Amino acid sequence: MSRLRRVALRLHGGGRFPDDLRALLAREGLILLEEELFGVYRCRLPGAVSTRAFAGGVAVTGERLVVWTGRVARHLDVAHGHSLRRLVTVTADRPDRVVFCYDAGLFRPDRPGTREIRLRTPQARLLAELLASFDEPVP
User: Fold this and answer.
1) Which residues on neighbouring strands pair with residue 100, listed in sequence order?
2) How would you class 58 by CB atoms within 10 Å of its CB: exposed for 0-12, middle for 13-18, buried for 19 or more?
3) What is the mean pLDDT of residues 2-8?
4) What is the distance between the alpha carbons of residues 76 and 89, in angstroms, rounded to a whole number?
5) Cβ count within 10 A of residue 119
6) Short-list 136, 26, 131, CA closest to 79
7) 100 with 89: CB under 8 angstroms?
């Protein structure tokens, strides 16, 4: 890893899951784990938009989706079968970027507005397809 990348990761929160969470995800059966990804977090409220850069990660287990931003923020942590998971839109809008979009007020009424988390990863298309496969009904 280049020195510039290490410095940028430190400035934007490191981008790694805490050890205890990573161990829990491993016990659930990790399907995909991407860490130290650069991204943009955008919060849209009526009449206002805030944006910040961060380093984070994404994990998909057989049970859930977890999106981590910064040092201590678990923005999404939702079971695949939960009704809220179907309200999270996941797209690969570019070959190297995945976008998670959701209405935060549905998850926590005290946090209204739309959230967008954009992560740069070479696995963007694979990640979007993998998460879409969990949405398909099982015959």
Assistant:
1) 90, 117
2) buried
3) 57
4) 12
5) 27
6) 131
7) yes
